[in-house]
Amino acid sequence: MNDIAVKRTLAAIVLADVVGYSRMMGEDEAGTLQRLTRCRSEFIDATIAGHRGRIVNAVGDSLLLEFGSVCDATRCAIALQQQLADRNAELAESKRIVFRMGVNIGDVIVQDRSLFGDSVNVAARLQTLAEPGGICLSLAAYEQVRDKIDAPFTDGGAHQVKNIARPVEVVSLAAAAIDVLPRQTPAKPRFSFRLLAFSGVAAGLVVALALGGLYLVRHAARLDLAARLEAVLTASQAKMNERTRTKLVADYLAIGPHRALAIAPKAQSHWWTGDWPSVAAAEEKVLERCQIAYNEPCELAAVDDAMAPMTDGATHATREMARVTYAGPFDVEQIPAVRPLVAKRADVVGYLEAPEPKAAAIHPRGVLTVVSGAASQRRAESQALKLCNDDDAAREADGRCYLYAQGSRIVLSQRQTSPIAKP
Questions:
Q1: Are 389 and 416 in contact (CB under 8 A)?
Q2: Distance between CA 413 and CA 403 in Å, rounded?
Q3: Sign of CA dihedral 396, 402, 406, 411
Q4: Integer Cα distance of 377 and 355 in angstroms
Q5: 310: which of 97, 157, 295, 316 is 20 to 30 A away, CA to CA?
Q6: Which of 79, 65, 80 lies closest to 11, judged by CA?
Q7: What is the distance between the alpha carbons of residues 381 and 394, in angstroms, rounded to a whole number?
Q8: 282 CB burial (10 A radius; 0-12, 13-18, 19+)
Q9: How far is 302 from 313, CA to CA, in rounded Å?
Q10: Number of C-beta neighbours around residue 240 at 10 A
Q11: Alpha-carbon torsion (292, 297, 299, 304), positive or negative
């Protein structure tokens, strides 16, 4: 017999999902994660809190939100879509973070602060029916907001959706309609200070002062890091002007953890990367990418919010990255610079068993392209290089792709940007 008590509650649910997320991650994994993280930190989380909602779950490109009121849920969804549209207006279409959103209200199971049940499943199905930048509401949710939110909702009809027995009645709000609605100012929580005891006020003041002090400490630390980074860049890259140097430091500090910056001393250049699962991964990948890009061992200058230690108090040690110079048989474990998602791709994992003629090409940004079963070896190599150079992430970065593998043999150390095989 199950002795776990099931807790149920009535809740308004919003399910939001990024349109084309898999494609965006395939094209520019680091940039996509960076843009989504910035949206979360700059306005998404604050807007949800301002509408008295909470984030139940945030996995990859999906957000599951809970509200006590379906009006709050719908107003929050509208505000988020408007803010995203305003942000996207400044970006190229391929770089835009666009959500579909579904809104539902119903009985849910609460377990460990997570939500389960048909009401959550319906919200998930509703978001798949919304247009990019739009919102779909269930009929039950719409009945709660129809006289309280002045917006041009349209009847979307009944839809039979996956794993839901009965058809779901849908009411839609198009992206164009959302865009012309008045921008909202989220309601701020109200506090009755008359109800606060003196001890509560004192405790609040202590916490506020402590948080303020912590903020000042962190802010001072970041200013110190920025100054030290600028000093290192000034010393190592004489050709870089002040404006470019300041922007580089600001861009580095803005990306999410874990991040790292490396210097190529002979080339007087640099490479930085971010959003890695650990500090060790960030260090390894930035040094590998820097060495591929500039054909020299690079110096680790900074990791997250700390400067890398100097060997003699004045310079950083250069590190030879062995996987960049590896020249043996194709081995997934030896591929440098790429993210785990790339190394686990079926065409990469199965490269050794793939039919000849075959080849692979790589870009310092972590792009890896594979061609197999081509008409000739030269054709395989040229196609792999072309696919790599045509990748959006490669086009946006400095430098070209290099031939990584010729057949089953690694040739990256030869730094060929054109086929090796004879015509």
A1: no
A2: 9
A3: negative
A4: 11
A5: 295
A6: 65
A7: 17
A8: buried
A9: 15
A10: 16
A11: positive
- Give the mean pLDDT per block of 10 residues along the chain (423 residues): 56 91 84 86 89 83 89 94 90 89 89 76 90 93 89 86 77 91 62 42 47 45 71 79 81 77 91 86 94 95 83 75 96 94 90 96 93 96 93 72 96 96 91
Residue 245, classed as helix, strand or coil, is helix
Angle at the Cα of 422 (from 417 to 423), degrees rounded to 5? Answer: 105
Token pair listed for 410: 């690694």
- Tokens 């990791």 locate to 303
Tell me whether strands 135-138 and 306-307 are parallel, antiparallel or unpaired. unpaired
CATH topology of domain 7-180: Alpha-Beta Plaits (3.30.70)
Secondary structure class of 99 (helix, strand, coil) = strand
Angle at CA of residue 381, ends 375 and 387, nearest 5° = 100
Give the domain ranges of the chain.
7-180, 208-322, 326-414
Amino acid letter, residue 98: V
Cα separation, 423 vs 205, in Å, equals 77
- pTM strictly above 0.70: no
C-beta of residue 69 within 8 angstroms of C-beta of residue 12: yes
